[in-house]
Amino acid sequence: MKDLLEYLARGLVDRPGAVQVVEVNEDDGTTVLELSVDDDDYGNIIGRGGRTASALRTVIKTAALKDRRRVFVDIVDG
Length: 78
Description:
3 helices; 3 strands; GMP Synthetase, Chain A, domain 3; globular; three-stranded mixed beta sheet
């Protein structure tokens, strides 16, 4: 899931080298993927009204269902 999110995010930003994804495993088996990008690229990741961010979360959650995992995406300040 981490690689998929990183791949998708790199395609959306102007500075793909600044994309970082940190995987955090919670005690209940949930995985949280923390996405950070360059300060100038947050608008590209979030999109109008949060549509791009919502789409990224949907793709990752759907891919995680195939593996029967719970995965959440957080967009954090880098």
